[in-house]
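Could you join me in thinking about how sequence relates to backbone shape in a protein? We need material for that, and I hope you will provide a protein of your own picking. Once you have written the record down, we can walk along the chain together:

…
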Amino acid sequence: MPFPIFAFMKIVKPYIILTLCWLSFLYSSAQTFNLPIDDNLPKFIEENYYSNLQNHTVIRPLQINISKYQDLLDSNFLNKENKKWLFDKNFISAVNTKNGLFINPVLTNISKLNEGFFTENGITAMAWLGKNFSANFTGTFVYTQPKYKKKFAPYEDIFIPHFGKAEKYSSFYTYLNLTGYLSYQVADFMNLQVGRDKVFFGDGYRSLFISDNSNAYPFFKGTVDIWKIKYTILYSYFHEKDSLDALDFGAKKYSSSHILSWNIGKRLNFNVFETVIWQGKDSLGNRGFDVNYLNPIIFYRPVEFSLGSPDNVIMGFGGRIRIFKTTHLYGQFLLDEFKLSELKANKGWWANKFGIQAGVKTFKLFGIENLYALGEINIVKPFTYSHWSYMDNYGNSSQPLAHPLGANFAEGIINIRYKIDRWQINSILKKYAIGADYDTLNMGFNIYRSYNDNVNPFRNKLLQGQKYKVSSIELSFDYILNPKWMLAFKFGFRFDFVSIQNVNQSTSSILPVSGYSQNWNQFVFLGLSTNIGNREWLY
């Protein structure tokens, strides 16, 4: 199958050429690159980004000047007078005053002492040509045993979470992961990128807008950063199964997204997000990428109405306020569908679909250097992100594009991290409850289930259905072997406590009765880990 970015480029090429011609005389800034979306990266990098009041922290991956990034690593990890190649330098480095190339290995080999292992090995390369062009490529081979089944997955496919459909080899499961991007810094205030990767819009541990939960996907992204405003457009291409019972991901769907971030004064940020998602082929034929959604400054709901379109439109509002020098409050409000009269009636109408996030993070808890802490709450109503067809839902490769739990859940997270020399200690507590489907009843948890399928129009409420309550406690210790590779030796353990609410099976409705079935899961893991992206709960 031809690489779909070429189809995108044919459509957007005239816009790009006009933009480049208009701005070609402007001087471009020093070259930047995208930081990996990885919570295990040292928090002093993120703290440095937050300390600059001009930066827009909600749009990720964060972009950082290459030389500044290298200086941050040197000053926090390295003895400049005695650098050792294996522990302090890039594996391959070719740099002059204008151009550069770094190539480093990816070496992730984690053993779960009571449940198989997870490996991801390959290479990652970063190159830049002058002040305008840069490129990044990562190719890894994922290899895991045993088959990984995601908790409460509403699908039975063999897949590796955060990646895609796995190939079975004997008793192992494999996946070839290829990601990267080409970047052109048009001017100080404009950047264009094309590639295959992920994005994350938010300041928190989770995002209700779009996150790095699903598989990587082809995209075209344009960013403008002027005055106190940063505006990003994102055109994306996704894969789904031809039918829910199919084995291969051959069906195509697309999305067009905008996010506008506005830094107000020295402490406040306000951002607005919108996206529309549609299937590439419907009853009328092959739509492909709908050119009506190319306009980079329109709001989609009026356009959707003018087209008489059944496409799925989602909007959101977010913000962040700095209350102390290194402490930030943040939040998001996600709006899928909403009817004020039904909300006032308080009858539990199914289509009042929205989500809320609230959190606080600090990079110097109690004023202690390198002591990071985060507290966050996420709540998403039933049926949010779903649509009448799974091909128009807010998902990619059978995985949610936003929060990994889908919908109909409430979650709390506490994360504390501490760095001393090359040691990093990470503790994280997650508690969440979900209302899962029971029997044939659609409780609004599975975003891949049609919202027309066996839905009660009224009397819907948060966490309806068969209730699962999960508490997870994880403590890990990382020793940074090579900061340039982001290679660490990792050791840790995790305890998961799961309780399942009993269900009255004598009625057609979900009625809780006294008693829960309960179980403990314990995991111990150790090995090498290269931090190039979040791999939550794969080890």
